[in-house]
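hey
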C-alpha cells in the first residue's frame, strides 16, 4: 500500500527536476532551498514560490514547515568521475553534513538523497561508508541502490546512487521499495531503452521557427575525441549523461547532437532530462545548461517517488 500524499522539503532543489517528479507522483512540496539565484528564479517561475534562496549553512530549521520527507541531490561534482581533480577534501563533499543536521533537528518520516555513482568510490569507499553510518546514526534505517535512468524511460545513460531512509521508530509501519525497471537495454519483456534520436525527433533546429523556449545552443566546436563531453553521440542509443560542469565561472560542455553537427540546445538537453517542453529556464546560456545538467531527470524522480509504502 502506498504511503499516501507526502509533504516534501527539498534541499539543493536547483531547477526542480526531483521536485517535479515527486509532484507528478502525487506528493506536495511545501518548502525548497538552493543557493543558485538563477535556479531559484527558474523554480519559482515554473513550480512555486515556496523556494528560498540561501546557502544551506544559513537555513534556519524553524522556518521549514512541517513535512514528511526530506529530499535532495546534494552537489555531486566533487564525487563525479568526470571530475579529474576529484579529491577527498573538496568542500562540496562535506555538504551532506548540513543534510544530517537538518534531519536530526526536524526528524521527518523519510529521506531520499541522490548522487553520482562516484560517491561510492571516493577514498576507497570509506567516505561513502561514513555517510551511510552518519545517516543511520541520525535515527534512520538506511538503504541505497544504483539506478540507471535509461531503465526508467529516460533517454539518457545516467547512473546515480539513490539513498533512502525510514525513521527507525516507524520501520515496522513504513518501508521504501526501489522501483523495478520499466525499460531494458535490448528490449524483450520490457520496452527497449529510448534513443536520443527518438527523444528529439519532434524538435527542429534552433534556427527554425519552432517557438520552443530556451532552444539556444553553445557554439563550442564539436569534436571526435575520447573525452567526456567530446565524444560523438550515437543516435541509436540513449544520450550520454547530460553534464553540469563548471562552478559559475566556467563553461559547460554540452553533449553533441545525435547528428553530431552541433551541441545540444538547452531545450534539447532539458528534453533528455524529461522536463516538459513548457518548462522555461532563467539565466544566461551557461547557467541554463548547468541547471539542466544538475537536475534529476523528472521521469526517474517520479519512479523513485512512488516507492514509499505502508507495510
Amino acid at each position: 500500500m502506498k504511503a499516501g500524499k507526502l509533504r516534501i522539503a527539498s534541499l539543493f532543489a536547483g531547477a526542480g527536476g526531483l521536485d517535479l517528479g515527486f509532484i507528478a507522483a502525487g506528493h506536495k512540496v511545501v518548502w525548497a532551498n538552493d543557493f543558485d539565484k538563477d535556479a531559484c528564479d527558474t523554480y519559482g517561475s515554473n513550480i512555486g514560490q515556496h523556494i528560498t534562496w540561501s546557502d544551506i549553512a544559513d537555513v534556519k530549521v524553524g522556518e521549514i514547515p512541517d513535512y514528511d520527507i526530506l529530499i535532495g541531490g546534494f552537489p555531486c561534482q566533487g564525487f563525479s568521475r568526470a571530475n579529474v581533480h576529484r579529491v577527498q577534501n573538496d568542500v562540496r563533499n562535506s555538504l551532506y553534513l548540513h543534510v544530517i543536521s537538518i534531519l536530526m533537528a526536524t526528524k521527518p518520516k523519510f529521506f531520499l538523497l541522490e548522487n553520482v555513482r562516484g560517491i561510492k568510490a571516493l577514498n576507497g569507499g570509506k567516505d561513502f561508508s561514513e555517510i551511510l553510518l552518519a545517516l543511520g546514526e541520525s535515527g534512520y534505517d538506511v538503504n541505497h541502490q544504483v539506478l540507471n535512468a535509461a531503465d526508467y524511460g529516460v533517454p539518457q545513460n545516467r547512473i546515480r546512487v539513490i539513498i533512502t531512509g525510514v525513521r527507525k521508530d516507524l520501520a515496522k509501519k513504513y518501508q521504501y521499495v526501489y522501483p523495478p525497471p520499466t525499460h531494458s537495454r535490448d528490449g524483450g519483456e520490457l520496452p527497449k531503452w529510448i534513443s536520443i534520436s527518438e527523444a528529439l525527433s519532434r524538435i527542429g533546429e534552433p534556427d527554425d521557427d519552432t517557438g520552443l523556449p530556451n532552444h539556444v545552443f553553445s557554439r563550442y566546436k564539436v569534436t571526435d575525441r575520447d573525452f567526456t563531453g567530446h565524444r560523438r553521440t550515437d543516435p541509436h542509443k540513449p544520450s550520454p549523461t547530460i553534464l553540469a560542469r563548471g562552478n559559475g565561472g566556467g563553461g559547460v560542455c554540452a553533449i553533441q547532437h545525435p547528428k553530431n553537427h552541433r551541441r545540444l540546445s538547452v531545450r534539447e538537453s532539458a528534453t533528455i532530462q524529461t522536463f516538459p517542453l513548457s518548462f522555461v529556464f532563467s539565466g544566461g546560456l551557461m547557467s541554463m545548461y548547468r541547471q539542466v545538467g544538475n537536475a534529476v531527470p523528472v521521469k526517474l524522480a517520479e519512479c523513485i517517488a512512488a516507492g514509499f509504502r505502508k507495510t
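The CA atoms of residues 79 and 122 lie 7 Å apart. Confidence is low (pLDDT under 50) at residues 77-92.
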